[in-house]
Fold these 4 entries.
Entry 1:
Amino acid sequence: MPKDDHLPDDGQLAGAGPVQAGRRRRRQFVLAVLAIAAVTSAGLAVWAMQPTLIRDSCACHPPYPVTASELSGAHWLALPRSPLGPRSDPILAWTGQQLFEVGGRWHGAVQRSGAVFDPSGGHWHRIAAVPGSVGLDGAVAVATPGGRFRPQLFVAGGMAAGLYDPVANRWTTAALPRQLAGLRLAAAVWTGYDVIVAGISKSAARPKLAVAAYKVEARRWRMITPRLPARHPTRAVWVVATWHHVMLWSMWSRRARSKSGGTMLSGVDMLRLHDHIGKWTRMRRYWPQHRVVEGAAFADFQILIPPGQPWCGGCPARSSPSAAKFADRRTLALTALPASPLAARPGVWLWNGNAVLAASESGSSRAAPDGRLGSLAAYDFYAHRWRVLRRVPGAPALATAPIFAEQQLLVLTLDGSLLSLGERP
């Protein structure tokens, strides 16, 4: 394949008129990273090329995000139902103005239909189906929220990627770079100019990391895989885009031979992709080494690091996750959040720049494959306090993870209902 392929989130519900990867993939991710493979280190062949990172902060800094105080006084609203009907694990993505829903499963069959919800008009409309060449099992997706470019949806899976243009109601597709083909795609982020996609090998015996940048304006791929220590084979990865950098966490483990038979070594490499020099730099050797970094999200000046499960091959297992933390986007200094007031451990952590939203979930069941939404609380970043929020009536089964839009929490249920908390008049 050529180096550059062209791609041409009490009470009765009140009626109201006017995203990531799904929960199942997140559960599979956590199970995978807790089962650290005992294999020998493997070297990585890597290349580095320069993508263009965010220069206009407006692309990721929407105005007036809803606050914890506003959420605590808000009521749940029933928005119009999705025209796609019941399904589990669809892709949800928020552009800053609209909500995309594509894919998912129903009665075991992969669905390729899609729809868009416009909160300003209070209506849904169907969109063109996702092309068959784009694999939707284990796909990653990200919306490009306008600014210099009109909002579009990027979906990558299997051997191809698709870019949906809402103006033309058309998908364009292209094969993934050969370095990503066959890998488990783990993360996709939007920098303001590029989509960054990271993948790791599906085989624990042959660890591999590949990172590529798709330049929307030029419509071409570039490989930007960082060079990692040869004795740090990547088992899991997470990526976050801030205003001027891309942050990448590579969680590694390997078996070290010894006279007693061997021991497991593990850790977390953190890297930053610099705009002005176009290369990756390893950051903070003292970054916490024995916790999974997954679900991290950037807004305003802070990166939210959700509580992490243990990532440790040679230390005693710890059953409880670490506390949620903020990492400063420049210094990466960590500040722990107070424990949430929720009785059940929150499984959902979302961040919009003003408030952290934490929610508990029930376990999956046949009637609710992705669990049910339980208690919710919001942390006021500026007042340094938690506020307990109203529970959604009826504990509906989730279709996928909630979306924290700037001004409301959006919840899509298994039966296709769309619920909102915090919508402003």
Entry 2:
Amino acid sequence: MKAVLVRSFGGPEVLRLEETPRPEPGPGQVLLRVFAAGVNPVETYIRSGSYQHRPHLPYTPGTDAAGQVEAVGSGIADLSPGDRVFTSRTLTGSYAEYTLAQRDCVHLLPKRLSYAQGAAVGVPYAAAYRAIFQRGRARPGETVLVHGASGGVGVPALQLARSGGLCAIGSAGSERGLALVREQGALAVDHREPAHLRRVQEITHGRGPDIILEMLANVNLSSDLDAVAAGGRIVVVGSRGRIEIDPRAVMSRDAAIYGMSLWNATPADLASAYESIIDGLRDGVLSPVVGRELPLSEAALAHKAVMEPGSYAKIVLLP
């Protein structure tokens, strides 16, 4: 089969499409024929060698995939070859024609969704759910501000916030991105404008958002502390460097700053998240948005694109 392999850590150019043996499922494992694989920013950090978790070389990147069950290992009776599924984690990497996953990481794909949409579920929706509800402890009626709301995690965050009874505000930096935020039923602010947080204050009648989802904490965290409501929570979903903050800004609002990483989620956390996510996908409340589809051979281009400012919705690879 064809698969993308990383034989040394480095830039996007280390992603090479090669021929490799097809894996076979062991007990409790599922072999998927991959029709679409999701691309996430975390995969660029892992590929560079700068992330806290470094896989053994060589490896195939990716955790999110959608496709059909090809074969199942012993002990699995509730899935059959041909079933439409998506994964929330793989054992052998998703940038490939076939991938292995544990049974509890394979979920039936609702018929209303395409395979490309299925590949856009795993990391983005789980990260958004964990940030809003498990770390941010959101309550119905509260207001959430999602920075970078037109991106891969931002769009799911807006959908999940609205489905959970929250007032959603999303920032974006392009007309196309702002339109996408509005399409999700959220209020949009243009973060290219220096006074965009003033607009957030106007929307919240001077109170500020109860929760802020921060995708670029090294740029925005200090200003977030001046904008968040009293007793508010800032959840750091992404950061690409260091920042200096004034602790008095936290103290004066009784605010809290939470970090968020899917690596730290317990099996119970993930099970709870995916139960809610799958219900929303089935009911049509949640609907993944795919912004760009690229062939598997262009994985390097996908890794460049997913890190560019103003990234739009989800990027998927098609084997």
Entry 3:
Amino acid sequence: MKAIVIREFGPTEVMRLEEVPDPRPQAGEVLVRVHAIGVNPVDAYRRSGRYRALPALPYTPGSDAAGEVVALGPGVERWRVGDRVYTDHRAAGAYAEYVCCHEDRLHPIPDGVGYPAAAALGVPYATAYRALFQRGQARAGERLLVHGATGGVGLAAVQLAASAGLEVTGTGGTTEGRDEVIEQGAARALDHHAPDHAERLAEAAPGGFDVILEMLANRNLAIDLRVLAPRGRVVVVGSRGEVEIDPRDLMSRETEVRGMTLANTPDDDLRSIHEALFAGLQEGTLRPVVAEELPLADGRAAHELVMRGGQRGKIVLIP
């Protein structure tokens, strides 16, 4: 099969499309023919070598794949050949024509949901759900700010929050991106590049936001703390560096900053996340947005796009 192989950490040039042996499922494993691959920023961080937990070299990147079951290892009972499935964040080697993983790392794709959309679920939608409901404890009627709402996680959060009855404000750097945020259910979308961005946020929620999902904490966390409601919660989903804050902004209104990473999710929480995603897809309240589909051979371009930011939705590779 064809797969992208990384033999050294570094720039996108270290990604090479190679012919490698087809994987064979062992006990408890399932072999999936991949029809679509979701590209995540964490894939680029690992490839560059700038990540706290790095895979052993050589390796094939990616965890988000969607496809059909083609073979079962001994002892597999949950799946049948022909089932449509997507992988979660615990899978590995998704940038390939086939992926092999434990049966517990697969989830069903509802009828009517295409493979490119399903490839957007494993990391982005699970991250958004955990940040919003499990870490942020968001409730209907609360005011939510999705600070950086135009990417895969941000748009997922907007859809999840709107369907749960929150008042959503999103931010984006382009007019097209902000239009997409509104289309996906936000009450308003603001330009986070505007010189008066902090003032506009304060005007959008005069009493403050109850929950903020922060995609770039090194740039925005200090602003977030100034526009939180009393006892509000900031959930840090992403950051690319250090930040300086004034602790008095936390003290005066008894607000909180909570971190999250999907890798820390307990199994029971992860199970409830994917059950909720399946229900939302069936009901039509969740509609993964695919920004661009590229052939597997263009993996380098996909990594450049996902790190550039500004796209509206998910970057997907097609084997």
Entry 4:
Amino acid sequence: MSIAQISKIIELWANREEYFENPVQDYLNIDKQSIRVLVWEKKWNFIRQTPQNYWPAWSEWFILLNGYNCQARCQYCYLQSYFKSPDMVRFSNIDDFLEFLNNFIKQFKQKNPDQTLIFYDWDFKDSLGYYGLAQNIENINKLTNLFQNFSNTFLEIRTKNILPNFDLYQKLELSENLITSITFSPQDIIDKYELGASSFDARFGFANHIICRWGNIGIRIDPIVFDQNFDVSLGIYQNMIQKLNKINPKNIVNYSIGTLRLKNSLYKALKKRDSNIVNNLVSEKNFRRYPQELRTQIYTHFGNFLENNHVYICMDE
């Protein structure tokens, strides 16, 4: 999606609860021409701590809350369980984020000088989404420049929405405290469930672009979707991983993998639409997900396929 495809950019200084969370549009059946970009200042709640089993226990990790939603319309997207509107939100006051983070990190490091800190700039949006890309990159550069003042403090950005021309990405100041990660899915899954997201080939091309410029990337395969029988689904992902294994393992910081998980409300909405993505899911702790035995099999196979010792499982035991 380009700016020209966004019907309206609204500067809002209103209360988010009064506007954004009202159920104004059908998230699952949205005409992308009607998506709006809402821009306002954020006054509080600049970060939140991640859920349990989100990332390795040796680090502390937090989510930056500086944008909501992205232009892709992934059928499984958990943001549909958070937000009742598909409109994209971007916050204009990056300096307030920088001031907060500077004070937060200083206080944290005084108490835990050797602890690794990781901030994620993508949980509620795509880090390199098409809208305002130059501004997104400028803000990322400001964050990484701040983090360079602190030891063992990192920013991870993540994307699955790649521009066909990489020129703008040249403005991204790659550094040792920036982890540039790409979410990969097999093209079969992209075609069925990731409406508006970039193709596998575009993501793979961007991975090589970052490697050529800097040398290291993170690879995220999450969610893993087994919507057919086990052998067929496993074969689809094995074929994708064979392509990913063409990347030198030395250039991959780590892999993070996780299986499909849906809030019950989203599961019910997708089930009404007869979506195959809900196949094989069972109820578990307020989620619908694959049975533990199936998830264990998936993780075991993926661990065998991936040519990297640093493979982490997200949001699972």
